[in-house]
């Protein structure tokens, strides 16, 4: 992971000031351990917008905090998708980095959602971890919206690097992305 964060900071310099996080409190609030690459991203960049599009949430009290917005975003988004699927039973498909398509498992209407949101896009996209097991460092990420998803099995940091480098196939991004990060004012 040290190599990956070095790759990202070489492409996008981090801000000079980043608020320290209380990861123990955040994980207690969310009732789960968060992936190490996410914690490294937030510790390096803080909360903000990557390439003018992807807003990375951080723990906190604000409406765009992973500890407040993350769970609510999942509930609202899954409800919307399930309603959409009731009208159109075709499964949502996500694009893997190699271009293959993968069916998105949304769980049943009474099942605990296997997702936790880590951020949003300026164009309505939502970023989730697909909680596929007990080890958060093995959770794939989903990014997109109804019927236009990216699915990256290696996590958030490799996904962002792949988008910037143009090395992954994406349903959500075309062409070169701006190498920028805009910190959110606290």
Mean pLDDT: 81
Radius of gyration from the CA trace?
16 Å
Number of individual domains: 1
Number of strands: 9
What is the percentage of strand-forming residues? 15-25%
Distance between the termini: 27 Å
Structural class estimated from helices and strands = alpha+beta
The helix tally amounts to 5
Shape: globular
Largest sheet: 9 strands, mixed
Strand order of the largest sheet: 4-3-8-7-6-5-2-1-9
**Which percent range fits the helix content?**
25-40%
Q: Note the run of SSEs as H and E.
A: HHHEEHEEEEEEHE
Uncertain ranges: none
Organism: Mycobacterium talmoniae
Protein name: Knr4/Smi1-like domain-containing protein
Task: Describe what this molecule looks like in 3D.
By secondary structure, the chain is an alpha+beta fold. The protein has one domain (32-165). 31% of the residues lie in helices and 20% in strands. It contains five helices and nine strands. The protein has helices at 2-11, 23-30, 36-45, 69-87, 156-165, and strands at residues 48-50, 54-56, 93-95, 101-103, 115-121, 126-130, 141-145, 148-152, 181-183. Strands 4-3-8-7-6-5-2-1-9 form a nine-stranded mixed beta sheet, sandwiched between helices. Helix 1 (2-11) packs parallel to helix 5 (156-165). The longest helix is centred in the middle third of the chain and has 19 residues, at 69-87. The chain is globular, with a radius of gyration of 16 Å. The two termini are 27 Å apart. The model has no long low-confidence stretch (mean pLDDT 81).
């Amino acid at each position: 992971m040290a190599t990956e964060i070095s790759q990202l900071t070489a492409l996008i310099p981090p801000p000079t000031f980043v608020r320290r996080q209380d990861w123990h409190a955040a994980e207690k609030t969310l009732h789960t351990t968060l992936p190490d690459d996410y914690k490294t991203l937030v510790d390096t960049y803080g909360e903000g917008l990557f390439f003018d599009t992807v807003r990375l949430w951080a723990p906190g009290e604000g409406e765009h905090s992973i500890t407040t917005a993350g769970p609510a975003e999942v509930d609202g988004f899954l409800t919307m998708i399930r309603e959409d699927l009731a009208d159109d039973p075709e499964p949502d498909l996500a694009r893997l980095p190699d271009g293959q398509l993968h069916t998105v498992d949304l769980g049943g209407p009474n099942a605990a959602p296997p997702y936790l949101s880590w951020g949003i896009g300026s164009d309505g996209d939502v970023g989730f971890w697909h909680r596929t097991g007990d080890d958060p460092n093995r959770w794939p990420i989903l990014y997109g919206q109804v019927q236009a998803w990216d699915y990256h099995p290696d996590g958030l940091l490799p996904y962002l690097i792949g988008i910037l480098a143009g090395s992954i196939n994406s349903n959500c991004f075309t062409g070169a992305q701006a190498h920028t990060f805009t910190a959110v004012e606290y």
